[in-house]
């Protein structure tokens, strides 16, 4: 079973992502901001995918993506955010994100995208 790290400062969004991914038979590790996400990424050896929000306190998603990329070039990273501007998408891609999903997401479409990546 693939393990997915989901990082979001919204408790509601974390639970929605967990519920959706769990229904798709994925193991989900939750983190409440970038610092927590980085800590869980470095302490969990078998993360198959990282899904992160962009706008978060303490460490934002772009900083988290850069920190993960400094440690691991291969793990896929998806941004799941309300940000939809091309400039922000480019910053995400430049930081190392493999994909960009805009909230709110449709659960079936979300699972399809995750399946293609994992």
Describe the structure.
It is a single chain. This protein is α/β, with parallel strands linked by helices and 118 residues long. It has one domain (3-117): Rossmann fold, CATH 3.40.50.2300. The protein is built from five helices and five strands, in the order βαβαβαβαβα. The protein has helices at residues 11-23, 34-43, 61-71, 86-95, 107-117, and strands at 3-7, 27-31, 49-52, 77-81, 99-102.
The gist of it:
By secondary structure, the chain is of the alpha/beta class.
Just give the CATH class. Answer: Alpha Beta
CATH superfamily membership: Response regulator
Q: H/E order of the elements?
A: EHEHEHEHEH
Principal-axes shape call:
globular
Indicate the radius of gyration in whole angstroms: 13 Å
Q: What average pLDDT do the residues reach?
A: 96
Count of helical stretches:
5
Which structural traits does this protein have?
118 residues, alpha/beta, Rossmann fold, five-stranded parallel β-sheet, 19% strand, globular
Helix/strand layout:
Layout: E1 3-7, H1 11-23, E2 27-31, H2 34-43, E3 49-52, H3 61-71, E4 77-81, H4 86-95, E5 99-102, H5 107-117
Parallel strand pairs: 1-2, 1-3, 3-4, 4-5
Helix pairs in contact: 2-3
């Amino acid at each position: 079973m693939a393990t997915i790290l989901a990082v979001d400062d919204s408790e509601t969004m974390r639970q929605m992502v967990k519920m959706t991914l769990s229904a798709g038979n994925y193991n989900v590790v939750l983190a409440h901001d970038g610092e927590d996400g980085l800590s869980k990424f470095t302490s969990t050896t078998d993360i198959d995918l990282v899904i992160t929000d962009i706008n978060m306190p303490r460490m934002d998603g772009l900083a988290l993506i850069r920190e993960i990329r400094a440690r691991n070039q291969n793990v896929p990273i998806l941004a799941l955010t309300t940000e939809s501007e091309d400039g922000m998408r480019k910053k995400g891609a430049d930081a190392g994100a493999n994909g960009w999903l805009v909230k709110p997401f449709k659960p079936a479409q979300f699972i399809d995208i995750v399946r293609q990546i994992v």
